[in-house]
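Batch 3, record 17
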Amino acid sequence: MGLKVLLVDDEEDILEVIQDRLEAYGFTVVTGGTGVEALQKLSMEKFDGVFLDVKMPEMGGIEALEEIRKRDKHIPIIIITSSSTREAAIEALAKGASEYVLKPFEWEELKAKIEKVYKITL
Amino acid sequence: MKRQKPPKKDPFASEPHKTELLRRTRELSALLAVAATATQSLDAKKILNDTLDKSLEILGFKVGYIRTLDPDAGGLKVRAARGLSSPEFLANVVPLDSRPSIAKAVFETREPYISSNIQKERRFRHGFMRKEGLVSAAFVPVPSKNRVMGLMMVGSTKFHKFSTRQIGLLQAFGAQLGVALENVELYDQVNNDRAYIENLVENAGDAIISTDIEHRILSWNRGAEVVFGYKKEEAVGKGLAILLPPRRVSELEEISDKIRLIGVIRNLETQRKRKDGIVIDAALAVSLIRDGTGNVTGFLHLAKDITEKKRYEQRLKELDKMKSDFVSNVSHELRTPLTAIKASVDNMLDGITGLLNEKQDRYLARIKSNTDRLARLINDLLDLSRIEAGRIDLKPSHLPLLQLAKEVAEILRTVAGQKLISLEVAADDGATAWADRDKVTQVLINLVDNAVKFTPHHGTVTIAVRKNGDQWAQVSVADTGPGMSGDQIGKIFDKFYRIDQSGKQKTKGTGLGLAISKALVEMHGGKIWAESKVGKGSTFFFTLPARRPFRLQAPSK
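Prediction for the assembled complex:
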């Protein structure tokens, strides 16, 4: 498939399991722990998509999303956030996110969202 | 000897006639004088003394008294006396109990009592009259319109034979006195009532202000002094506009327009400015003041300082939000580690991390199912706390209930199929509800899921939809499970209540599903209940409004 995505979450544990899963789907995954780190990596490398947590220190996901959208109107951005912040996820959609999934989620759900955004079958 | 005939030509010219005429004139003018005092004066003491003096003067006596009924003293008390000065007599109260006495007899019978020689009458032998040396005495009642107020006595230390005319005159004085005393009583009563009401107004904790039609302040009670800081002398005569904060200068006109339209303003929450410039929250009630002919002459304002109440309300809102935020934060904190556990286990179970042996696979499956259960519990808790905090808004629409029931049946058909349970949807009469689709779906899934859980293999679960009268739609979920006792039915909607299952296969719910369902149904204005008998299965019912509630449009002016 050869798609390279940036996965951003401040929780190491989560970062690793999602990375493993995405790699199992065939993505090349680069990780970041904060919104600031995400922006730095985005300015240095070219990515085919971003998976973004909302609640993070330094710069939250919503702010990072706005910054990314200023630079790139089209890059797919999937928000991965806790379902207690459903409102934030909906806000993210309004601010240009491509899709969202609420933690804790079933892998099937994430898979379906990815297939929809990239118009592929995993 | 032949008696001389009186001269015929001028019957009133003779001396005896002249005297008679003069006397009658005097009597009449005395009676008039008493009547005048009686009607003009509201001073009981003056009336009593004047009447007694006039009576004695006209009848030519020196001794007399008036007793009236004094309920506090429990009898007839001396109110005025002449020629009787012993302290024992003046302090004496004639009781109205069984002991006989002249005063009591006159008071009770309303008949005069005349004695020409009380020194000889047995019934006076212990009385004050005899001790005071009285020889002749006349007692008359003092009657008012409907009752007897007391009695009056005139007497003499010399023998005197009372004429019918004298007694009649004395009775007339007594009657005048009765009317006068009653007037005084009524006046006192009115005065007391008035003082009572004035006292209420004055000391009410709220501001009570009357104004004329131009909003000029006419009265200002102590409550108004406290609430607004202006003294009565400072406020009366000024315009009520002194109380308006800058942003509300036109409010008096709005109030008078509104009140002319609807008659009274019962509770207007607004703001007012105190003398010291501080703006307070105030609740107002305003009504019209009318004169005797019904013309509006002004306004009556009642104002309550609700600043503290508002502050408490605000604080309560903040606390409520804090609680809600707390629950939301806690649930976030719980979900994050759960997500990590669940996602890790799933990766392992899906073979992403390498091959597992059979036991590892079984252990991981157990972790997964319990993690899912924890996740459901957190979701339910969060749901319930949002509902209880009033944070869930309904998005109602017209719901075709049969279609919804079929959708829910499809969602749960696989689960039911695992136990070979037949999941049926009964034909309905086209019932629709005005309700929030997601919430009703949640309730129905919950009920059907429960029914499937409790129904043994090869059982049946039936969803039925029908109308319940004109106003309500009713949904029921019936199962062929073990049923419930009356005691269990009473607790089934409580939080964390679980039915004890003696069997080996315990259901793994959160204990919150029915509590959430109940809250969601009640948010719609509906009811939820269960009917069951042990061994006969259970049926859960809930109702929803059949159509959009009718709302009154505010009338245009």
